[in-house]
Every structure is written in C-alpha cells, then in structure tokens.
Design brief:
With 448 residues, this protein is an alpha+beta fold. Helices cover 29% and strands 27% of the residues.
C-alpha cells in the first residue's frame, strides 16, 4: 500500500488522507475532490465498487459526505488529465474502493470560497480576513503562502551557504531602532518598553560576533496607514555583513540572494505560479543603480510623472512605479537600486557619504513599482554615532548598550531588510500585501 502519491503510478493501490474540498454526486457515483497540502486531488467513486463508512463505522452514501470532512481514502491510481488549475495532481486520479470518515464539521454552513461573490474586492477581502482560519483553505490562498514559505526557506539556505549565521533577537526592546513615533508601547512589569521595529541593533551586534548574520522574524510598525502596501506586523528578512568595502558589496549580495530565491521559487512552486497566473520578475546580470537625485531627473526629463518631484527627499509612489517601468523598458530589469538618500531622512545609524555628508550611503531596492528593501552601509565608530545622535537631539545614554558595541570595536559593515509579504506580493502580482500574510495585522484588525 502506497501512501506517498509523488511515487505512485497507474495501477498502484494507495491510501491517502485529506480534507473533502468538494463532492459531486452523479447517478453512477460521483467525485470526491480531496484537498492536500499543495492542492487538489480528484477521486472517482462508483456506487457498486466503493464502501463509505462514517465515524461510527456505519455504511453511508456518497451524498452523506460534505465539504471539510477529514477522510482516508483507499483506491487504485489511474491516469487522468485534470484541467482544474487548483489540482496539484493533474495526471492521476484515484478510483476509490473505500472511504472512512475521520471527522466532520459541526456546522452545516461550511464556508465555501468557490461560491463567494462580492461586488468589490474590498468586501471580498474583508470577508476572507474575518474568516481567515477557514478561507486559508482556498487553493489560491494556500498557493500564496506556500510561495512565501519557499521564499523564506531559500533566503535562509542561500545565506547559510554564504557563511551567514542565523540569529534570534528580542522583540521586546527598550528603544526603537528606527526612532520616531511609529513604535508600539507596552507595559513591562511597570516599565515602558516597545515592540521592535526591526532587529537592527542586535544584528549589528551579531556582526561583531559572527561577521555575517541573518534573521527571519516579525517586526512591528505603529503606522496609522490602512493601505494595500502596509502591515503593522510583518515578517522581516534581515541581513547584516561585516568587512564590507562599501554599500556596493551589500547591493551585490542582495542581487545574488534574490537571484537564488527566484530560481528556487521557479523550481519548487511551478504549480502555485500556474494556479495564480504569476510570472516571476526579471533580474538581469546588471541591475540599474541610480542616485535618488538622478531618478528624479530621469522621470522629469522623460515626462513620466504627473508632478515634478525634483528636490524631494524620497520617492513618491508614482515615482516608484514609473522608474520601475522605465528600467524594464530600457534595461530589461524588474529591479532598480536607488541610492544616496538625504541623511536627515534616514535612520541615525546610516553612514553619511564622506563626499557629501548631507547624503547617506544607503539604498532602496524597488521591484515592479514597490519598495521591497531598505539597506546600506552603517556607522561603525562610536564617536560618529554620538555626534549624529546629539545633532538629532537624541540622548546617547539611552542607547548605552548599543554604543558599547562600537566602543569595543566593530568592522565596517552594512545590511538590508526585505519584507516577506511585500516581496511575495511582487513576485505573484498580488495587489494587497495583506493577502500574503497568514493572519494580517493592520490598524483595524487583531483577530482572528
């Protein structure tokens, strides 16, 4: 008896368990569509060749089965050509000889994602998130999170192969790494603390230990933005590396990392990509790298934006979309590195450009019109930190443990962070990053 369908061939006797995704009854029998971890499996039931038993071991009819029952099916593998894009097993089906019901839902009104019809996407998404524990079972939502899982695993595997050490840092912190007001405050045994905006301080400390570190963990931003591109809790893929010669080393690492991730997703997630109708991004050997001021000029000179953004301290959303479109048309790249952001609008740990201290050796990476990364070279000398903190009105004593790291010596280093939900959304052409989170958290949602 075979239990692994990946090794099954026509004529094999198999036993397979799963959830009933759908039941179709005909005069001669019907079909049980079984949901497995990667997608759907079609099984065929003939009235005179199959026995169906409920939890009590009593014989029942096919129409006594319902969606979301847990069942074990025994049958024979047959060749098939399944057209349903949600079917993971497209070239086989099971001719069923026995069905045993393991459990059944307690409600007769099981959520049926296939039957949902709403007039607008916002209403549909609200319903999906309100019933997320069940609507995640929809093959499309399963596929999105499967891709996110593979992205995360490929991220870790590549960096480990490159000599990076995975670390695990606190999410309850005494100070926000990014500064500003967008931190979640909480009481910690009578003391005010915060949920970590990023592991920035700790991954820099890690560089002094292991030289190259990475982390995959939640990050929290108390931003009162309810948009399709923001989450208040998200998964941050963080990297920090020592002994760099400049931010170019960091950008090169990220490009090679993304190349490895794209390759892994293409290999492992062919089914999910086909189901979602997704095309992976193009990452050429040479990714365009432009200064922020140059991006403003390119867009203005080519009349690619409605407004003139020259002189602004950041990229407007319309600029992100326009420069990515320009890069794809001119250089065949879905990616653009934008560098040298103003010092006053970057985190205090960003290294200032020695040639122009008003700018930083920092970058954003844009993909398909959306920022997926912020990174750059960091300050690595204590006196430079103190000078910049005082200039910004920060009290260095509040960051004593952090500054002690540099007082005891640190190499030149830099890093970046990728939002897992954002990069997944960009890979798959998903309009709302919340769909790429298992249980999204925004300004209106803390349940389920």
């Amino acid at each position: 008896m075979i239990t692994n369908l990946n090794n099954a061939k026509a004529g094999d006797l198999v036993e397979v368990s799963g959830m009933v995704h759908n039941v179709r009854v005909t005069k001669w029998g019907g079909f049980i569509i079984l949901r497995k971890s990667r997608g759907l499996l079609q099984t065929v039931v003939s009235n005179d060749q199959c026995q169906i038993y409920n939890e009590q071991g009593e014989t029942v009819a096919l129409n006594d089965l319902c969606r979301e029952m847990a069942v074990t099916i025994t049958g024979t593998v047959g060749e098939a050509k399944i057209k349903d894009p949600a079917a993971f097993y497209k070239d086989i089906e099971i001719s069923v000889s026995e069905v045993r019901v393991l459990s059944r839902p307690s409600t007769t009104e099981v959520v049926d994602m296939n039957a949902l019809k709403f007039g607008d996407e916002e209403t549909l998404l609200r319903y999906k998130f309100d019933n997320r524990q069940v609507t995640l079972r929809n093959p499309r939502d399963m596929a999105i999170l499967k891709v996110a899982s593979v992205v995360s695993k490929a991220f870790a595997d590549y960096l480990t192969e490159q000599g990076f050490t995975q670390i695990y840092t606190p999410k309850i912190v005494s100070e926000g790494a990014e500064g500003g007001a967008n931190v979640f405050k909480m009481d910690y045994f009578g003391k005010q603390v915060y949920l970590a905006q990023s592991p920035q301080f700790y991954k820099q400390i890690g560089v002094g230990v292991y030289e190259r570190v990475f982390e995959i963990a939640p990050a929290y931003r108390a931003e009162k933005q309810n948009t399709s591109r923001h989450l208040n809790e998200y998964i941050s893929l963080d990297v920090e590396m020592g002994f760099i010669k400049g931010q170019e080393d960091v950008m090169h690492l990220e490009a090679e990392l993304l190349r490895a991730i794209i390759s892994r997703v293409a290999t492992v997630c062919e089914h999910e990509l086909n189901l979602l109708g997704a095309t992976l991004p193009v990452l050429p050997a040479e990714v365009p790298i432009w200064r922020l001021s140059k991006v403003h000029e390119i867009l203005f000179e080519n009349n690619l934006c409605e407004q003139d953004h020259r002189g602004e301290d950041d990229l407007a959303p319309e600029e992100e979309r326009a420069i990515c479109k320009y890069a794809l048309e001119k250089f065949g790249s879905d990616f653009v590195f934008v560098t040298h952001f103003p010092s006053e609008h970057r985190a205090f740990y960003a290294m200032d450009d020695p040639e122009d201290p008003t700018l930083t050796l920092s970058f954003d990476l844009l993909m398909r019109g959306l920022e997926i990364t912020s990174g750059g070279q960091r300050i690595h000398k204590e006196e430079d930190y103190r000078r910049k903190m005082i200039h910004r009105g920060m009290n260095p004593e509040n960051f004593r443990f952090y500054l002690d790291t540099f007082r005891n010596g640190m190499p030149p280093h830099g890093g970046f962070a990728i939002g897992l939900e954002r990069i997944t959304a960009c890979f798959l052409g998903i309009n709302n990053v919340k769909e790429c989170s298992m249980f999204p958290r925004d300004i209106n949602r803390v349940a389920p």
